[in-house]
Amino acid sequence: MPTWISRLLVVPCLVAGVWIAAPPAVAETERDEAPEEFTLTDERLTESSGLAASSVHPDVYWTHNDSDDAARIFAVDGTTGETVATVDLAGVTARDVEAISLGPDGDLYVADIGDNFDGAWDEVWIYRLPEPAELADATVTPTVHTVQYADGPRNAEALMVHPETGRVYIASKNGDGEGGLYAGPEELSEAGVNVFERVADIELEVTDGAFSPDGSRLLLRGYFAARMYAWGEDGQPQRLERRVRVPLQRQGESLTFATGGRYVMFGSEGPSSPVEPVELEGELLPESVAAEDAAREEGETGTDEGEDAAGGGGDGGKDDEGGMSGNAVVALLVVGAVAVLASRRLPTKGR
After folding, report:
1. What's the pLDDT at 340?
2. Is residue 331 located within the same domain as residue 261?
3. 186 in the same domain as 129
4. Same domain flag for 188 and 147
5. CA distances from residue 114 to 47, 91, 111, 159 in whole angstroms, order as listed
6. How deeply is 101 buried, as exposed, middle or buried, from its count of CB atoms within 10 A (0-12, 13-18, 19+)?
7. Residue 12: exposure state from Cβ atoms within 10 A (0-12, 13-18, ≥19)
8. Which domain covers residue 208, as residue numbers?
9. Domain end marker among 257, 286, 315
10. Residues 279 and 334 in one domain
11. How do the pLDDT tens digits run along the chain, 351 residues long?
């Protein structure tokens, strides 16, 4: 093959290689990985009544028994269900521990707020301790906060600490229309009594609750149902129409948002009880997670449009501003290169 022909073939092929190459796709942000379902294997955990995802130890959850147990909490591996640490609370006697929550200060709030006599106890307590930096058996003396309700004693099984403001909330258990959400003082006192004021009515017979990691959602559960609330800046919950799917469990007592906020972990009482994940969707998603999904979708749409433009897309060789598109320019360059080579290398008559 004559040299000029090989050059004629190579040049447009090289240019065409640039011409048809699609731009690199924008890397998609990975969705939160679904946490695993696990079973509590510790024989001491017979009445797991609260659940809190660790803020420093991946795939670790804090839990505890309710009544008839020592004042202690358990760190459980969320992949095996095995207890990896037990923390005994010194100086307190657990009466009816029903909930556990993590605050933005890194402290664990253990709620001794149950009242099996429906309001017979004038005072209940919150035990507060730093989340251990290392997972090992230990004994800790917690800070004790005494609690009363502004409208009188009541039974409660849900305590939630807002992840931004650090304010503590308690949901009473009454399911006869008298249940309510109570807000504590802006800062809990160690010396005096902390009076919790009723801020909203709750119809559900609440057995546990949790704020989403970004504080935009509050989820309350009962034995067989759960309801999601949008949390406003005014500290008022607005119930969402869509309900959260609750797994069928022996005695649904606990929940926590998994790290990231896309999934909720639901726990149950009883020996060898399961902890099961449920994925949230639509308006149930915390605002930060919904924003991430929207940004991801927008990025994917933008990439598709870019690929259409690179491929011509029937634009008649013009870009969005009416100028000549990149494809048209490249095409002219190819034609020009072919013409130049041909004029230089074409054999002349008589040679």
Report:
1. 38
2. no
3. yes
4. yes
5. 13, 19, 8, 11
6. buried
7. middle
8. 38-286
9. 286
10. no
11. 444 444 444 344 333 443 333 333 333 335 668 999 999 999 999 999 999 999 999 999 999 999 889 999 999 999 999 999 999 999 999 999 999 999 999 999 999 999 978 778 999 999 999 999 999 999 999 999 999 999 999 999 999 999 999 999 999 997 666 899 999 999 999 999 999 999 999 989 999 999 999 999 999 999 999 999 999 888 889 999 999 999 999 899 999 999 999 999 999 999 999 999 999 999 999 999 999 999 998 887 765 544 444 444 444 444 443 344 444 433 444 434 434 344 444 344 443
pLDDT at 31: 60
Pick from 187, 294, 295, 171: which is nearest to 226 by CA?
Answer: 171
- Per the rule left: phi > 0, alpha: psi between -120 and 50, beta: everything else, 156 is beta
Structure tokens at 18: 């640039």
Report yes or no on 33 lying in a domain: no
Q: What does the alpha-carbon distance between residue 277 and residue 270 come to, in Å, rounded to a whole number? A: 18
What gap in Å lies between CA 276 and CA 255, rounded to an integer? 9
Identify whether residues 326 and 301 lie together within a single domain: yes
What is the number of structural domains in the chain? 2
Q: Between the CA atoms of 20, 26, 27 and 28, what dihedral angle is there, to the nearest 10 degrees? A: -120
Among 146, 181, 167, CA closest to 103: 167
Do 156 and 170 form a contact (C-beta atoms < 8 A)? yes
- Long-range CB contacts (< 8 A, 24+ apart) of 234-240? 235/167, 235/183, 235/199, 236/199, 236/200, 237/181, 237/200, 240/283, 240/284
Same domain, 77 and 201: yes
| Same domain (yes/no): 11, 62 | no
